[in-house]
Amino acid sequence: QAGAIETLEKTLETFIPDAELKEVKRILYGKELKKLILPQKVVEAAQEREFDLQGYVFEAAPEQLRTPRIVRVGLIQNKIILPTDAPVLNQITALHKRVSEIVEVAAFCGVNIVCFQEAWTMPFAFCTREKEPWTEFAESAEDGFTTRFCQELAKKYNMVVVSPILERDEIHGGTLWNTAVVVSNTGQFLGKSRKNHIPRVGDFNESTYYMEGNTGHRVFQTQFGRIAVNICYGRHHPLNWFMYSINGAEIIFNPSATVGAVSEPMWSVEARNAAIANHCFTCAINRVGTEYFKNEFTSGNGKKAHHEFGHFYGSSYVAAPDGSRSPGLSRTHDGLLVAEIDLNLNRQTADKWNFKMTGRYDMYADELTKATQNDFKPNIIKE
Amino acid sequence: QAGAIETLEKTLETFIPDAELKEVKRILYGKELKKLILPQKVVEAAQEREFDLQGYVFEAAPEQLRTPRIVRVGLIQNKIILPTDAPVLNQITALHKRVSEIVEVAAFCGVNIVCFQEAWTMPFAFCTREKEPWTEFAESAEDGFTTRFCQELAKKYNMVVVSPILERDEIHGGTLWNTAVVVSNTGQFLGKSRKNHIPRVGDFNESTYYMEGNTGHRVFQTQFGRIAVNICYGRHHPLNWFMYSINGAEIIFNPSATVGAVSEPMWSVEARNAAIANHCFTCAINRVGTEYFKNEFTSGNGKKAHHEFGHFYGSSYVAAPDGSRSPGLSRTHDGLLVAEIDLNLNRQTADKWNFKMTGRYDMYADELTKATQNDFKPNIIKE
Q: For chain A, give me the number of helices (H) and strands (E)?
């Protein structure tokens, strides 16, 4: 069943005749994107390394006073490598190796900013509610093994690296956090951004491990543009995307880990709506594959205990402020999505559609402040 | 071109084989909805009256302490009837007649709450920037010709009527507003809700005619559930949907008038995202057809003057909190979409996914308040 459809787009292309396909794609994906022309050796490298490689171009109109602001982003989705009961350090190292071979191809593609999936150095083990060995995957954001690994990649390829990990914060009692580390293309640790909204749904028992992030809605000024990281469940919260945008984010990454029949139809809606509503680019990344755990666990849904909770459906994509979006990566295989973006499209779209100008934020600040009070009286009109 | 695709769903169904179609629909539309079984005489009445009739059922799980809270909503989309230079009263009367014959079928379908399209008594003439004769279409919300017409319908069919009109407010200097009137199923004027966000984009020169609404985010308690009206351009503003939901809306109607290659790919995203993010139902209604105006007008895009600005693409639909949605009505023909909704699905979805519980609204109230200050310093981290 997981493999029934490799990608939605390929299924549409297989069966729908060209004339209708053009209209179907326009309605579903917005304006047609050019494919990014990639050198043959790059295409071959992706084939040899067995991952889906796709590239698209988001163009903007020429302007008189600004040159195009071209940036290439890379989104990486991947399976875990070793069984989940392999030694922790072996699991991490195997993932480092796999991701580094995909990043090398991203570098061949001229990627300037790469983002990995949520908690990319580990299986998504929060379904188990076990503390060991999963908490051993936590690392210092500032100078952990994985951050140092990313700093090497960043320097080697002159690439900004967004690295979402399980963080252990030794300075604050050794607490855990779900955190994205941002490494500058110079190899410097630029900062970290924590997951603001923590799920309590189905197998996503993350509130057992870490609290809501306390790093607010910071935006990172990189050489290639201003970026922010809205981790996973935060994609369901329009206010979260919004506040990153208000702080100036031009590209918001959404590294995720999500499964299931309810989640998948939402996947193509949420990050894309955020790109439209906030006049910015969004990059939605989901892992792939099914992860098996040695000890059985239940899912709080009355069903029998089991060892896995379904396949992560991949389908990573990039969405643009003008409502256009790229196709999704594979639903089942590792992949690298490269998008060449002209950031000038953000302001061009904003100047045309004016959502920020017409946003009436003073009214909402006032209404929201009132709504958070305990004695809030909803504005309800009755007969 | 307008007619190239009648509906997206029909095109998918025509070309994609059953096995793949099931997966394509699951990914694009969420869980499969039952079709509403409608009596043959009703289907025939719709055929005779030449409009697209579709009906779907949004089910919820049974509960122990609450009975199902079933409501049937009706969404009506239609073309204008007479040429735009016909006498004003004739145009209004012709639309009353057309809509009343669709409402009669809605009553046959057991509809409890019906909503018409934005500014439904008139052509969408704001493209012209002419004041006359368009301002003559404005009426009193409380006791205008059209409100009295809706009151008759409401009483006759025991139906709540949401009637979006161009309002003239005599008490406040005769100002115009873009307003939805809500008439109770008893025939009483229940209240009005004004459009909160006014576009300045392309042919939508509405800020020439009326200002941003001053009725906040009121919600109407009807016999069939709590409803709110987010008019047209407000669908691009996630905060607008959100605040109706915070005030308790269970169903948010989005009567609209929209055209164009940029708008259409956004159409299926925005109201649906709002249903997901706010654990409520949303009903997106767009008019159909192309409206010709006697005097030529320009569109602020460097192109030659013209007499029409493209076809309203219809595609009205209902979206549910669990990410499922109905197919769209026709892109080219008048239509009535009937959705049987169990409002219990809202709380069931909220209890499972917890977006309000995990919303951190105090943080956002604080951040948004700061962001609206003139001396706001965005939270940007630099190397």
A: 9, 16
Determine the pLDDT at residue A4. 75
Domain layout of chain A by residue ranges: 8-371
CB contact under 8 A, A372 and B362: yes
Measured in angstroms, the CA of B173 and the nearest CA of chain A are apart by: 24
Class of the CATH-defined domain A8-371? alpha beta
For residue range B307-342, what is the model confidence (pLDDT) as tens digits?
Answer: 999 999 999 999 999 999 999 999 999 999 999 999
Pairing of strands B189-194, B175-183: antiparallel
Catalytic residue annotation of A? 118, 195, 232
Model confidence band, residue A3 (pLDDT cutoffs 50, 70, 90): very low
Cβ neighbours of B236 in A, within 8 Å: 276-277, 353, 355
CA distance B171 to A202: 54
Q: Give B63-80 pLDDT, tens digit per residue.
A: 999 999 999 999 999 999
d(CA B362, CA B131): 44
Compute CA distances B148 → B123, B140, B162, whole Å: 20, 10, 13
CA of A198: which chain B residue's CA is closest?
B358
Band (B10; pLDDT cuts 50, 70, 90)? very high
Average confidence (pLDDT) over A61-89:
98
Q: Are A330 and A288 in contact (CB under 8 A)?
A: yes
Order of strands across the sheet with B160-169?
B34-35, B52-58, B335-342, B70-77, B113-115, B160-169, B175-183, B189-194
pLDDT averaged over every residue in chain B:
97
Catalytic (active site) residue B232: yes
- Point out the residue among B233, B248, B362 whose CB comes nearest to the CB of A380: B248
Question: How far apart (Å, rounded) are the C-alpha atoms in residues B57 and B35?
Answer: 6
Q: Are strands A335-342 and A52-58 parallel, antiparallel or unpaired?
A: parallel
Identity of residue A234: G
Contact B161, B141 (CB under 8 A): no
Amino acid making up residue A117: Q
Beta bridge partners of A177: A167
Indicate if the pLDDT at residue B1 is higher than 60.
no
